[in-house]
Design goal:
Length: 348
Amino acid sequence: MTVGALELPHRLAMAPMTRDRSRPDGVPTDLNRAYYRQRASMALIITEGTQPSDDGQGYMLTPGIYTEAHIAGWQEVTNAVHAAGGRIVVQLMHTGRISHPDNTPHHRQPVAPSAIQPKGAMFTPTGLQDMPTPRALTTNEVTNVVQEFRHAASAAIAAGLDGVEIHGADGYLIQQFLAGNTNERTDRYGGTIKNRIRFALEVTTAIADEIGPDRTGLRLSPGNPYNDLTEHDTHDLYPALITALAPLNLAYLHLIHAGDENLTHKLRRLWPTTLLLNRPGADLDTRITDLDTGLADVITVGTTALANPDLPHRIRTNAHLNQADPATFYGGDHHGYTDYPTLATTSV
Ligand code: PHB
C-alpha cells in the first residue's frame, strides 16, 4: 500500500497514544525507543502526541519535537524503528486549553482561540485538578503558532521521522478553532466556517510546504465531543474543511469515527487520497470490515497494538491476543509499556 512517500507492507497501523514516559524536558528516552522498536511490524507507527512548542504541552512527560535535544532523542527512536524494518511518523499535538501549568516545565497559563475554561479535571503531579481558563492568542500569536508547527515538522524530518501527523482531533488546539463553543474570535480565525477552518488550513499548508505533502497527514474527529467540545455545524464544517484540504494532496487523512456512519462515508467520498480510519472501541473484525468494504484504506488500532507488540504476526497466525492494562497506560516505567510478551517469548 502506497501512502504518500511511504510504502506500507500491509494495512494495519498503530494509532497515536499518550504514554507520559518521556523526560521532563520532552526528550524521548531509551525506554521510549524500545517501545516503538518492539512495534515496528505495524504497517505504520503514529507516535504519541508530541508538542511542537513549549505552549503546546498539556500533559505530564509528553515528548517534544522542537529543540536540538528533542531531535537527537527522536533520532535514536527512528534509527531503531527503521533498523527493525518499520516506518514511523510523529503526531504533532498542541493541546491548547487542555492543559495545566503544573504539567509543563514553564508553568505558563495555557493558550487557546478564546479564554473559555474547559469543563473537567486533568491529571497533574499533585493529582486531579480543574483545567484553568486559558489566555486567548492574539492574531499575531496565531500566525506564530503556525510557524511553530512548521518548525516542528522540519525538526521531525531532521530526526529521521518518515513524516508528520497533525493532530486536528479530540478537542485540542486545532479543533478548538473549528468548534463554536471554543472559538468566539472576531478576527479572521473566528465566526464563519471559512474563518474557523483557517487555522487548520494554515498549519497543514505550512507543514506540507516544509516537508512535502506526501509526508504530511492530518487527524480529524468530526462531531467528537471529547474535551468539552461542541460543534454546532459538523455536517457543514467538515465537508468545507476537507474540500479545502483536497488540493494539497496530503499523504493521508486519519479519521476518528465518532459514530456518524453517513458522515464518515460522505467524508470518504470527498477525500482524494488515502484514508486511515479509527473506530474507537470496535473489535478487530469490525475494523477489518472497513478495509473489505473500501471505506478505509488503512485501519489504526491503539490499545491492541500496545498490548501486542507482534500484532500483525498474531493476526496472520490466528493467535490469541494479550489484553491491555489501563492502569499502566499513563506514566510509570516499563510495566505495561515494554513488557507485553510476544508469541515467541510466551511459547519458550
Ligand atoms: C489523552 O492523553 O488522554 C489523549 C491525548 C490525545 C487524544 C486523546 C486523548 O487525541
